[in-house]
Design brief:
Strand 2, helix 4 and strand 3 form a beta-alpha-beta unit. The chain has eleven helices and twelve strands. Helices cover about 30% and strands about 25% of the residues.
């Protein structure tokens, strides 16, 4: 017996690492001091740029959106989903990304599939100015089905203490601005897959005229990064709170930015919902309440700002290329809950 006979192919692993090195190097900034293959990634922190720096870290996965990628045999988008999700998670506290680490686990390692996944990771890291500093690719036969893998990411960013966004300055009367999502992003896929594939008996190649796409194309639309449109505005101190609308939808995520004795009132008719949500709701007979606590419903990020600053903030967002941003509600007195009107 040898290791390959037991299901672990060291040569395939070495080939995957060889390909990853080139992709990761394309994301390196001047602060990266190591190469892929070191036991630890080295990153020089430029404290001079930040008077009182706070490191902000987060970890997440892609979830069962991976199942759609497997069905469609498309692996170049899930890495981008992962990086952008993690970037948004630290952006809501005012942080800019420094570096990213990934973890990919599979039953049988395919250098071709790993390369496609890491191409998406590297592309998103470059677009967000974030170094892909390292990671782990694990081959674990018997734990995952052939052709399947799991993917997780870990990000570290930095924010000046004086510019930390923690929601403490949010007050009743503040406006809530919603930024459009590209679709489901990376949440709600367990329900979406059950509706589309188990109940409706459709598949990823099914073309849906009202979506103007196949189901595979619609479901694999990439999770947006809001750093390009929000990052340049952070120094102006007009944004008092942010919520990344992920698992749990607006209902569960918006309260995470609210201080005590504040609540949110959301006008459900204030924005245009992407057609995928109406399609899922109709096909699965899903209640409005369940839709709003499962999916983002077309809003990927919510900003809180003084009502007097809201229109100018919308103009600034539009100037930075943000399309579809709208005032979707306001802060009221309450118990850190979301009310819909």
């Amino acid at each position: 017996m040898d290791y390959k006979q037991s299901g672990v192919d060291i040569d395939a692993g070495n080939e995957a690492v060889r390909r990853i090195k080139r992709l990761a190097a394309s994301t390196f900034t001047e602060n990266v001091l190591s190469q892929i293959g070191s036991f630890g990634g080295l990153f020089r922190f430029s404290a001079e740029r930040h008077g009182d720096p706070i490191l902000v870290a987060s970890a997440d996965g892609v979830g069962t959106k991976l199942k759609v990628a497997f069905l469609a045999n498309r692996h170049d988008t899930v890495g981008t989903d992962l990086v952008n999700h993690c970037v948004n998670d630290i952006l809501v506290q005012g942080a800019e990304p420094l570096f990213f680490l990934d973890y990919l686990a599979t039953g049988r390692l395919s250098p071709e599939i790993v390369t496609r996944v890491v191409e998406g990771l590297a592309r998103a890291c470059r677009e967000n100015g974030c170094a892909l500093l390292g990671g782990e690719t694990a081959e674990m036969p018997g734990l995952y089905a052939d052709g399947e893998y799991d993917l997780a990411g870990f990000i570290v960013g930095v924010v000046d203490h004086a510019r930390l966004i923690d929601g403490r300055s949010i007050r009743p009367g503040d406006a809530l601005i919603g930024l459009a999502s590209s679709g489901l992003h990376t949440n709600g896929y367990s329900l979406a897959r059950q509706i589309l594939f188990d109940i409706a008996r459709l598949d990823v190649e099914t073309f849906v005229p009202e979506l103007d796409a196949t189901l595979g194309e619609a479901l694999l639309r990439e999770h947006r990064s809001y750093l390009p449109s929000v990052g340049p505005l952070l120094s102006r101190s007009v944004i008092h709170g942010m919520a990344h609308i992920t698992g749990g939808g607006i209902t569960e995520n918006l309260p995470r930015m609210l201080p005590d004795r504040a609540a949110a009132e959301i006008d459900r008719g204030a924005w245009r919902r992407p057609p995928i949500f109406a399609y899922l709701q109709r096909l699965g007979s899903v209640s409005e309440v369940e839709m709003f606590r499962t999916f983002n419903m077309g809003i990927g990020l919510v900003l809180a700002a003084r009502a007097d600053d809201a229109e100018r903030l919308l103009q600034n967002l539009a100037a930075l290329g943000e399309r579809g941003a709208a005032i979707i509600g306001r802060i009221v007195s309450g118990d850190r809950a979301v009310r819909y009107i």
